[in-house]
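U., I forgot to send this yesterday:
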Amino acid sequence: MPEREPRNIVERVASTIYGILEAPAVWVREKVVEPNQQHYPWYHQKFRRVPTIDQCYTDDPVCYFEANMQYKRDRMVDTEILSILRQRFQDCTMYEAPDHVEKCSHLLQQYEEAAANWFTKYGDLGAYHNAKAAFMKQKHRMIWERRHGPVGSGMKQETEENGNGN
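Result:
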């Protein structure tokens, strides 16, 4: 479609300003971004999955380091997912103002489930934690659940374990 000639001075000024602002962006896109896209099919660095901390030997510091870096990356991803879910719920409550309780309940349920899962995995570890601390937390939680039932359901009574009620 050929460009048409501006009809009056206002259109000419607007067209000139538009061209001045658009030209550098088009140049960067055509000369920098698009040639680099041909070499790299993605922008984000993709890391290979490494053995987790429970698969490392006790005398292998390189494996410990890799497992810890993978744990930190996974934690950042999980935190960002939780942030996105929170933002979706907040946007929904703002958009659906008086009726947000019914219309945004599914988003709130998703966010609360994700927050509970995040806290189960990463919560109460302190400021300076690593993959080993998270693994130990998971191990202790599994032992607790085996002995006492799911966390939050209350402890089993002694009579329930024996089964005789005496």
